[in-house]
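Data card: per-record layout.
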Amino acid sequence: MDQSGPRHFRRPNGRPAACDPCRARKVACDHTRPICKRCLRGRQGGSKCVYSESALPSSSVSTSPAQQVASARPKPAFKVAPPGIRRPQRRRAPVRRGYLGFTSFSSVLEETVQSLSMVNGSTPDYSQHTAGPRVVQGEVRFSDLPLPLQEMAMYVLSCLPGQPNAHMAFNKTPHKIQDHFYLGVDRVSESVTEIFATLAKHDERATLEAVAEFLCANTALPLPDVHTSAIDHIEQFTGQNLRWESLGLLWAHLERVGDLINAMRTRRVVWLDDRPDHEASQTCLTYCVELSKYFSAGNDLLLDISRRQGTLLSIFDGDANLSCAYVTGATASMLSYLGLHVLKNPDGYQPSSCSENKRRLFAQVFSGDKLSVAFTGRPPLISRRYCSTSLLLDLPDEVLSLDQETITRAAESLDSKGWNTDGAVYSATVIRARYICAVVRDELLEMALVPDQDIPREQILAVREKQIAVFADFPPALHFYPSNLADASVATPVLHSRLMIKLEHLQNLFFADRLLRLSPSSHDMGDIVLTSFDLLSVALLFWTHKDRFAATSQHFEWLVIAYAVPAGGILCQELLQPSFNGTHPSDPRVSRSSIVQKLSLLVGFLDWVHPSAANGDMCVDCKVIIERVLNEHLNAAERVESDGPGWLAKEMEWEGFQTQLDFNLELLDTFDWLRTDGS
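The structure for this 679-residue chain is written out next.
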């Protein structure tokens, strides 16, 4: 059946095509047929308004804006060949099933192959019979991507330096830091600058589409996870191999999410005009991860970016938020998918940049999972029982960036336990220590979170003694001493790391003491008051010396809830129901007066956190409770003497707190003294 009327042509993205005059002048067209209103109002009265089908991109010939820019562009100085001249195929690696363990079908098939080899006398080669790689023949066309992915890509690119919505700038100041991560950030920055400089003379949107198409094509190519040196590894995601994961690295570096040492160093990427926009960085990092996942089945670099994304969400959304749970869950799944949890050192192990990077990633993800579990009380995503990856060696980042011979010599200089012997604190030093504490914490969390089990006191005490032993076995360079605060020779990153390791050690003791106190055979506060006093004292140092730790102040909101508030809850209980008179019999530092002083500082710390912060509502609630405890305690000294030390807990009927107050901190929730249900 013949249908009359104008035929409405559409562009590859589905939008109506503009008329020829509007397209030539690059102005908005309202697509009115047969003559658009803009042309009708013009001098020609619409006589030149034509909708030409020949002007539209053909389905058989690639003429997208990105390709038009590439075809018209002279040979650039940038090493990456322009899109349209060098067109990487969208090749996906052979269907990668990831790590498959003992219970998988693969394990049984491998046993069958071994049996066949015993019968035939040799191991048959079945590689030619396996399914071939899933290769999507053809080019990665930006216009063919789903519209949400196109918008993600355009937004991320528009926020880069020199672009219309720029939020960051590259720090070109020379530096002496030569570790793997910093070298990678510098090389990515150079690559981004060069590729945009190559396309600087072309239309803005076409330029962004060309760059996006180039990044998508590279990200679709497999990223080898075996390399001989750090430089080889960096070259796999920079220059002509620039990927979406590479841009994610820039946003993570901008927000100082990585490890404790690098977080305190001078950044190679800074906020434009010193105006932070954390929402933009969080969005861009999330988009980079999503774009990478669309094209890639997973790799070590993507795992690292995903881990950093989880840290960023923890800071700005809070650990209890579902968005943070999604990302940490995806990171843990990718870790086991890549098999990084079963990297046991073989006999005669020779460390390399690649192998040590994998062990570092595992330790960081494992430790991060234990921090999240301690905060939320939710079951862990990774258990030590299913992991056999060996502990990373205490090698400097600078050494791992050098040749294999240098790495081997550095490994030979370590002590028998893998620590460096020069008394320095490297990123690997801190990651090792935190991982060792995390393994002990995994045992404690297992006791605390498994329901309906009676844990013998001896078992809890054994784990507590283990934590004391492993902490005492740490190198002297990792131990914090109060004199460090006034010692200018102690670098701020080192001091920050010592404090964090001290906090994690004390938190493990806190969990053990809390389990001991809650055991059926215990009726006293035991050492938990002393542990809580120390835990709160160390946590408060970050606030009382906040100028020195200004570079990581964005972590303070999480830190006060994770470490200071639980300890403060125990000390509040001690004020309400004293377990000793005067000073503590085991530690003269702990008295009624010193407890009040520490809690008063904690109130100031909580008040410093803005209510709109990720954990701001928790901080407000905790501050109100602690203030009321302090007020009642300070105003009721005489009545305590006359009516007994327990009167305050019996008569507290506070408006707004008469029902159970639950901070959803589970194991950390030390405010159970507020509950009226008798639980």
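Known properties of this structure: The radius of gyration is 30 Å. The chain has a mean pLDDT of 81.

See the next section for split statistics.
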